[in-house]
Amino acid sequence: MYKTNHAQETGRALMESLSYGNPTYQDQVYKSLIDLMSCTLPKAQQLVLQTLRAVQLKQKTAHHSIVKPLLNMLRSPHIEVQTEAINLILDLRHYNVRGLLLSGLVTLLRPIRKEEEQHPKTQETERIEITGSLPEFLQQAAAAKPIRER
Question: The domain containing residue 23 runs over which residues?
Answer without folding.
Answer: 2-113+121-148
